[in-house]
Amino acid sequence: MELKLYNSLTREIEEFVPQDPDLVTMYVCGPTVYDYVTVGNYRTYVLGDILYRTLLYKKFNVKYIMNLTDVGHLSGDNLGDADVGEDRIEKAAEREGKSATDIASFYIRDFKDGIRKLNLLKPTKFTRATEYISEQINLIKVLESKSFTYETSDGVYFDTGKFPDYGKLSGLDDKKIKEGARVEVNPEKKNPTDFALWKFSPRDSKRWQEWNSPWGKGFPGWHLECSAMCMSELGETVDLHVGGEDLKMIHHQNEIAQSEAATGKKFVNYWVHGAFLLVDEGRMSKSLGNAYTLYDIEERGYSPMDLRYFYLGAHYRSPLNFTWDALGAAKSAMERLRNILSGYKQEGGQLSPDHVFRFEEALLEDLNMPKALAAVWDLIKSDVSEGDKIVTLLYFDEVLGLDLESYIGYEIPQEIMDLAKTREQYRRNGIWDKADVIRKEIEERGFVVEDEIDGFKVKKKF
Ligand SMILES: [Zn+2]
């Protein structure tokens, strides 16, 4: 079975064929690291993870790049005002009384924690926009040499009037985009859809982050950063480019325009966009106080893995409505799953071909995860042997990423249980060094002991 994906560019489900059968190239638009990442954005990164895992499951080699935007993303990034407002990182630096670099480093570290908590596989490489300044300047130079740029008093702009294909991703033609544009904020722009490639630092600048360029001191535009990082890491044409649907209309459109204008080649073969996460049927936003983070989830007694299960319950192209009840239902399902798995003890088994077929059929048809989860439950309820269930579930979990293997309840030998009990005694009496020695011994013998509020749990180590 081949992988099929909905391509936002053609608006059709297509068979995925990489340019190079030996290496798939994939770029995911990552976060702007000025604040905690919300559960809305994490939905997109889980989509990227599922796609990545699916490619690995299909035995592709993948080079997967995710950017970290640490400069140039302005606060007003809606249609028509993409180039105004304050730099989000600078604003956060001011708010928290730190340097821009400290802000970025702090939220990058936090994001990487989130990645671990949600069991996302690490990209091949994270790229920070500030580490690709020369690549970005070079890209503007190429665009300038091909007459796609012009200068205004506040920066260097891309002239969308010279790029006939502008709008092909959103499906909107130039006229409609103009009608949709908000009141023109920069009268120096030739077209409302033109966007900044390079912004000059204001005269009275207290900016923390600025660089010299042939056009003047300043900083790169957000759209430019992604094109430059994507092409310098993955080549002029990339197989897959992934992001939230909120990026499709402007950010990705602009990435296409400047990349294709520079190279004369197609920038991306398959565009994959994830739908919004709603909260209580409405928009999620910081101003509404419902832009939940992983900390909010944990504070209410849920685990990020419950959230992962919750995300998988909807197709990535359908809006998903986040409510605490819905997250509660995901938590219950995860608990049920863990309880069932902890009852599985039989060692040795084989893949169940029928169930693998059903799972793959769902997965490879545009990543239909709700159907793939249904295949998981079908397997559990089936009369397949326990050993086969274990092997097949672990095989599915390479894609699901629900960490199922740590819940399978193989028999724990009595001597290991005795060791764990002794360790528990030491722990209760505060004799930490001895407790630690026993913990290590247990691990060396292939088991792990986890502390719980009222005791401990021993699991087989995989
Ligand atoms: Zn991007």
- State the low-pLDDT regions, or none: none
Strand order of the largest sheet: 7-4-3-12-13
Please estimate the helix content.
Answer: 40-55%
Shape designation:
globular
**What gap, in angstroms, lies between the N and C termini?**
30 Å
Mean pLDDT: 91
Q: Say what oligomer this is.
A: single chain
Q: CATH topology of the largest domain, which one?
A: Rossmann fold
Bound molecules: zinc ion
What CATH first level of the largest domain would be assigned? Alpha Beta
Question: Domains counted in the coordinates: how many?
Answer: 3
Q: What is the number of helices?
A: 15
The CATH architecture assignment of the largest domain turns out to be 3-Layer(aba) Sandwich
Notes on the protein architecture:
- By secondary structure, the protein is of the alpha/beta class.
- It has three domains: 271 residues, Rossmann fold, CATH 3.40.50.620; 129 residues, Isoleucyl-tRNA Synthetase, Domain 1; 47 residues, no CATH class.
- Helices cover 43% and strands 17% of the residues.
- The protein has 15 helices and 17 strands.
- A five-stranded parallel sheet has the order 7-4-3-12-13, with helices on both faces.
- Helix 2 packs across helix 3, helix 6 crosses helix 7 and helix 9 packs across helix 10.
- The radius of gyration is 25 Å and the shape is globular.
- The mean pLDDT is 91.
- The site of zinc ion has 3 residues, from loops.
